[in-house]
Amino acid sequence: MLKIVCSSVADGSMKSTDGQWQTVLKSRTTFLQKYGLQPINSVLVHLNYSGGDFTRYITVDQSSRGDGIVRKSSMIADGIATQQKDLVLFLPLADCAGLILYDSTNNTLMLSHLGRHNIEQYSGIKSVEYLIEQFNCDPKNITAWLSPAAGQKNYPLHHFNNRGIHETIITQLQKVGIQNSNITASQEDTTTSEKYFSHSEFLKGNRQTDGRFAVAACMSTDQ
Predict the structure, then answer these.
(1) Count of domains in the chain?
(2) Quick one: DSSP state of residue 68?
(3) DSSP 87
(4) Distance in angstroms between the alpha carbons of the first and the last residue of the chain
(5) Is the pTM of this model over 0.85?
(6) Which of 13, 21, 146, 154 is spaced 20 to 30 A from 106 at the CA atom?
(7) Gyration radius from the chain CA atoms
(8) Contacts (Cβ under 8 Å, ≥6 apart) of 162
(9) Backbone angles phi and psi of 162, in degrees to 5
């Protein structure tokens, strides 16, 4: 069974923006346990904006349990994939989109971060290509889910003729063979809904609090 959960502002920030690591750890723990998930079984998509490559993908397994969640991250990645059941993939966000790809035919799951930098390097396409190359996935068998993200009005992608994040990603997914009927995109706009943190709105002075919400996904053995 595929399990996807998304936190809100009410759950607290899922990434430290002010050095309050213990507060973030408590928020992550409470949020995950609310859905029967455990931090020790989770792996963080640990981003780093240095360098020029924003399509770095890594396969994780049981040896990665707790990486970046209950201990320091040992990897830098823009997306992580697994075939391990009950291994939770965890991604903090604020305006960018989290892309979940799932192939039920060979039990493969991937969680990728898609912000402006990633999308300009066609990370929607490259995330799917990673599953094809590493796990022999067929795009026709892959379902895709896009998290809440900044909407086109307040966050247009100038590199893509001012189209929105979701619209641009969906086009990339379709180009690599994902069927439109297998793509689901959240209707929530982080720049207008105060249910979610929005870093861009915080920088504009429209939000009093900066922070990150999170998307978590796992292939659960629970029925």
Answers:
(1) 1
(2) T
(3) P
(4) 6
(5) yes
(6) 146
(7) 16
(8) 152, 156
(9) 65, 25
